[in-house]
Amino acid sequence: MRAPVRKIAVVLLTFNAAALAPSPAAQAQIAFRPCGESNNYACGHLTVPLDPSGATPGQITLAIRRHRAPIEGPSSAVIALAGGPGQAAVPLTEPFLELLGPVAATRDLVVFDQRGTGLSHALRCRQPARGRRRAQTIEQSVLRCAEALGPGRAFYTTHDSVADIEAIRRAGGYEKLVLYGTSYGTKVAEQYAQDHPSHVEALVLDSVVAPNGPDPISRSTFASVPRILRQLCGHGECARITRDPVADLARVVADARRRPIRGRLVDDHGRPRTLPITSDALLGVLLEGDFNPLLRAEFVPAVRAAAAGDSAALARLLTRAEGPSEEGAGGGIDGTLYLATTCEEEAFPWSRTASPPLRRRQATQSVEALPAGIFAPFTAGNALDLSGIGVCDAWPYATAAPPVDQAPLPNVPTLILSGESDLRTPTADARLLAAQIPGAHLLVVPYAGHSVLTNEPSSCGSDALQALFDGHPIRPCSPMPRPPLLKLPPLPPPRLAAVAPSRGYGGLPGRTLHAVSLTFGDLSRQVLLGLLESLSAASASSHLALSGGGLRAGSYQLRDQTIVVHGYSYVPGVTVSGTISSGRVGVGIGGPAGAHGYLRGSGRGALAGTLGGVRVRLSPGSASTPATQAGATPGSAIASAPTTRLLAALGQALRRLPGAETDLTELPYLLASRRLHQPWSSGARWSAAGHGRAGG
Asked: Is 673 exposed, middle or buried (0-12, 13-18, 19+ CB in 10 A)?
């Protein structure tokens, strides 16, 4: 699975397509020069034919960045391939070097923006002059964009990118290449290996797309949903949440297919509103969990609560999963290039000579004729919405359907990495590919999602990469405990009566005290999610703006290094207001259901005060009190402060909250992961219902 089509097409609704870039003068070799003020990297360009066969005139200049190996004149290079199709790779050169350190120690690292992306003549849809916009349907937008591109749109396929890699190899003077790709980048690497096997030294394929893939209707993704949900419930994680997460999801999907569920959402200013929850949106947030384990962990209790009639947690979760568009996510996916490649290449179930309405009918009939269980607990309708069928049915083909490539893959050292929790490119696809490469090493990494080397919670994948190029055996990943970020939060209590009293207290004060502890746990998770979103888009600063709504009511804001809460409510009828900082915690407890009072920091991470006239003390670990229906989860201490002063201060502040369930020491890992593959992930939301295929 790769990046979105439908959402990209929506962006094009008021745009007209720009023509292909003019042809610069040809050149036969790469003239590198230092990039900016850095001597570590060299920038260069290589002009290649628009049509690799030479039958159609035209040229494209590829933007290339190189990191020289510390040895003199290496005979091989590493080509690092980004995802998409449509993701610019040059901005990712430094992260690639960090990931591939042991491989690049004796080889040049070469990164280039594939044709039609980034600085390699990016295809664009240009906005018309002010006052000349006219409303367009998706079909009209796609058609006009394709027609403006003209016949040249035929030359932005995987095979064309493979020809460019071969041109770079020759111009660079390399005898062989190590090909590293993630998601769609693996498809390009595989195709090069099939077309030029004698020039392949090794393959490193992370989160693979099969050589003749992807499947337009993502059957392996749907087949993996039940397994991944049950995996989340392993080791007794769901004991106090649900007996069957798959049945819960099936019930909510069925309800949403009949009519959108209306979820109650509290915004950043504490104002309530309703949010329609569709089955496509549920699928979208599951896919987004490939990149954000916090979202994945919250999915099971949120769906269970919605199945029981409480959709607040699910509404908030879906809003969290809504991220920036492809064009805005760190460079993102080039929408026009994505359409040109996907619509020309993908084997949709229709006749290419049919009209758009007939294509749509043919595809719908084909998908709906499949056994319903293929997509369960989702449906054929979700598969159609997730696919590119609703966009590419209007694409005017410039090429014939690509033949199924039966060429063998070379017998070269190959490492295939698959995240055990990856829904976009599931392990089933990786097994199929491994069977086609003699001697390939398939490594399934526990708890990892999409893009293993940036996503794994251990060093198993990185160790395997080192072993491959050191000539050492590649060992399976050792069993490991569930990472703290994947521990499921408790089931949100529907009312205060469902919350058991904190240990040592009884009655309303005891229930309220436990509700406060659960509220702190929820607040800490929301702060971490908010930080992840904010810092993914901008560097951390002491003036970072951050705010969010409570599950039931109220809000929180980050002011300098203090968290200010205004009537923040997680348990209905119990509110928390006050300030939380590294030096002081003081909160008032109110609301129509709970015992009123005040709590303040008393040293050693404890809070003390009175609730309903009863003196109480809330100590670290108080969230481990069994909560009957509420299902409290043990809090986890924050082990160390992150590197920036802001995050250090926030880490200290959250550490003072008994019941806090998050660990800010994980934030740098999450940020590094998101910044590298965020553009590849952007495609979880692009169908007509707002959610769709995930990006690779």
From this structure: buried
Mean pLDDT of 186-207: 97
3-state secondary structure of 650: helix
Model confidence pLDDT, tens digit, residues 626-649: 333 333 222 322 223 333 455 666
pLDDT given at position 662: 59
Nearest 5°: the CA angle 49, 54, 59 is: 20
Tell which residue, 540, 489, 548, has the closest CA to residue 670. 540
The distance from CA 464 to its chain's CA centroid, rounded to whole angstroms, is 23
* DSSP state letters, 385-430: HHSSHHHHTT---SSPPPPP--PPPP-S-EEEEEETT-SSS-HHHH
Is pLDDT above 80 for 541? Answer: no
H helix or E strand, kind and range, residue 445: strand 441-445
* 3-class SS letters over 469-523: HHCCCCCCCCCCCCCHHHCCCCCCCCCHHHCCCCCCCCHHHHHHHHHHHHHHHHH
**Residue 43 phi/psi, 5° resolution?**
-110, 145
Cα separation, 182 vs 209, whole angstroms? 9
Beta bridge partners of 205: 181, 416
Picking from 141, 131, 119, 123, the residue whose alpha carbon sits closest to that of residue 45 is 119
The token duo for 393 is 């049915």
* CA neighbor of 86 nearest in space, from 205, 187, 163: 187
Band the pLDDT of 532: cuts 50, 70, 90: confident
Kindly report, residue by residue over 223-248, the tens digit of the pLDDT: 999 999 999 999 899 999 999 999 99
- For residue 231 the two structure tokens come to 């995996």
CA 251/CA 258 separation, integer angstroms? 11
Q: Which of 344, 358, 379, 337 is nearest to 20 (CA)?
A: 337
Find out whether 245 and 292 touch, Cβ atoms under 8 Å.
no
Top mean pLDDT of 20-34, 450-464, 615-629 is at: 450-464
Amino acid identity for residue 564 in this structure: V
Residue 472, Cβ neighbours under 10 Å: how many? 11
- Backbone φ and ψ of 608, nearest 5°: -140, 155
Q: Which residues have C-beta within 8 Å of that of residue 254, sequence separation ≥ 6?
A: none
pLDDT band at 112 (very low <50, low <70, confident <90, very high): very high
CB 425 within 8 A of CB 416: no
Place of tokens 């998908």: 367
- pLDDT at residue 544, as a whole number: 65
DSSP state of 114: P
Give the separation between CA 438 and CA 9, rounded to whole angstroms.
40
Question: What digits encode the pLDDT tens for the residues 4-34?
Answer: 455 555 545 444 444 454 444 344 588 899 9
Mean pLDDT for the stretch of residues 365-386: 95
Q: Computed from CA positions of residues 57, 63, 66, 72, in that sequence, does the dihedral angle turn out positive or negative?
A: positive
Cα–Cα distance measured from residue 549 to residue 349, given in angstroms and rounded to the nearest whole number: 44
Using alpha carbons only, what angle is made at residue 578 by residues 577 and 583, rounded to the nearest 5 degrees?
A: 150
Taking Cα atoms as reference points, which of 87, 11, 6 lies closest to residue 696?
87
What is the reported pTM? 0.88
Whether residue 238 contacts residue 249, with contact meaning beta carbons closer than 8 Å, is answered with: no
Q: Do β-strands 414-419 and 200-208 pair in parallel, antiparallel, or remain unpaired? A: parallel
Please, are residues 262 and 274 in contact by the beta-carbon 8 Å criterion? yes
- What's the alpha-carbon Rg for the chain, to the nearest Å? 26
d(CA 341, CA 445): 30
